[in-house]
């Protein structure tokens, strides 16, 4: 039992005792003080865990995995494979593992979240699923009986996923005991969409130095390179798919060091980076998207007036299409993510603020 679980259990037991003894004021006040202290301890432990990068969380969650007969093999800590023959296989993108694009230009990925999760845990997973629609043509949607391929999000042993679409039911494991964090959900979903780890990039030797002398014996294969496409992006030390510098270390010393500047933060991402997003939209050829500035999104949520020209229309290569939004109304209705459709008419019809 983890210290966090212990403190929560102790808090519940202590609270029950307090209610039984509340007639004694001094006992009740003492209980109240210790209950408050345990509550602070629980939140502190949870906050400390959430501050870890995705790779650190995955490493901890997968450290003592016990593989069952029906579980897949894991390589590179969290990539699932069916057999040894897949260890040195070409990237799945060369075998056609992408999820299909619909006629409306969106890529719908069906998913099912098992009933193993609580409502709070499901909301963490759902938030991770929905984060993709804010910048890409990817739309995760609940599965239907007619779906041939879908993701089954389950709480198995550890955090792991297959890379790319496999066909049929495809398990993504997010163990309740250590994987339910926003960036960890994003990491495993990126695997399911076809992405490998950043440190396996074909050009990685130009950007990091792998120190195999510090790697646990027998784990050297986790640092193999793959013939990745890279989608025209430079190496990203801050990618949510980049592992931290002591991954698979046998002695606590770095197994990867950035070059030429060894002090660059490596593998510390707690959400998808700009490069992660660009690669995804490029890989799936998300044609034309609506770019919303962070300030606009924030203003929308708070109900503040926003100048309509803060919205720009771009294609997947970053080309900006200028012009009045009111002249592009018919295009924007097809481009704006579904969750913003309810506010779209306001921003299209809004007039520029009067000049002083």
UniProtKB/TrEMBL annotation:
**Gene3D superfamilies assigned to the protein according to its UniProt record, in alphabetical order:** Collagenase (Catalytic Domain)
Residue numbers annotated as active site:
188
What Enzyme Commission number(s) appear in the record?
A: 3.4.24.-
Per the record, a Pfam family? Astacin
Q: Spell out the SMART domains in the cross-references.
A: ZnMc
PROSITE patterns named in the record: ASTACIN
Query: Where does the Peptidase M12A domain start and stop, copy by copy?
Result: 88-287
- Which interval of the chain is the signal sequence? 1-20
Note describing how the cofactor binds: Binds 1 zinc ion per subunit.
Q: Where does Zn(2+) bind?
A: 187, 191, 197
Q: Which PANTHER family match?
A: DISCOIDIN, CUB, EGF, LAMININ , AND ZINC METALLOPROTEASE DOMAIN CONTAINING, METALLOENDOPEPTIDASE
Q: Which named protein is this?
A: Metalloendopeptidase
Organism expressing this protein natively: Knipowitschia caucasica
């Amino acid at each position: 039992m983890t210290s966090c679980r212990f403190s929560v259990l102790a808090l519940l037991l202590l609270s029950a005792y307090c209610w039984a003894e509340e007639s004694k004021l001094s006992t009740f006040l003492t209980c109240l003080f210790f209950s408050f202290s345990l509550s602070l301890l629980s939140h502190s432990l949870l906050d400390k865990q959430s501050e870890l990068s995705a790779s650190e969380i995955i490493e901890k969650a997968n450290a003592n995995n016990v593989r069952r007969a029906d579980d897949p093999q894991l390589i590179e800590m969290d990539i699932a494979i069916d057999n040894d023959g897949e260890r040195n296989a070409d990237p799945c993108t060369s075998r056609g593992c992408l999820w299909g694009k619909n006629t409306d230009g969106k890529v719908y990925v069906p998913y099912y979240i098992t009933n193993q999760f609580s409502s709070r845990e499901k909301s963490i997973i759902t938030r991770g699923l929905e984060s993709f629609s804010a910048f890409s043509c990817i739309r995760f949607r609940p599965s239907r009986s007619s779906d041939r391929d879908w993701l089954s999000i389950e709480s198995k042993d550890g955090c792991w996923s297959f890379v790319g679409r496999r066909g049929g039911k495809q398990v993504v494991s997010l163990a309740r005991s250590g994987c339910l964090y926003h960036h960890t959900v994003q990491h495993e979903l990126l695997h399911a969409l076809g992405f490998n780890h950043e440190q396996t990039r074909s050009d990685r030797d130009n950007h990091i130095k792998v120190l195999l002398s510090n790697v646990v014996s027998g784990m050297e294969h986790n640092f193999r390179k793959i013939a990745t496409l890279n989608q025209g992006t430079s190496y990203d030390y801050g990618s949510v798919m980049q592992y931290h510098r002591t991954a698979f270390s046998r002695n606590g010393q770095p197994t990867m060091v950035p070059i030429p500047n060894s002090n660059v933060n490596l593998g510390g991402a707690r959400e998808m980076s700009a490069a992660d997003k660009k690669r995804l939209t490029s890989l799936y050829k998300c044609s034309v998207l609506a770019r919303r500035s962070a300030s606009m999104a924030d203003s929308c949520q708070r109900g503040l007036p926003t100048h309509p020209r803060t919205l720009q229309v771009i294609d997947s290569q970053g080309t900006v299409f200028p012009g009045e939004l009111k002249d592009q109304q018919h295009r924007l209705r097809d481009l704006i993510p579904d969750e913003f459709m309810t506010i779209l008419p306001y921003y299209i019809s809004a007039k520029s603020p009067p000049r002083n």
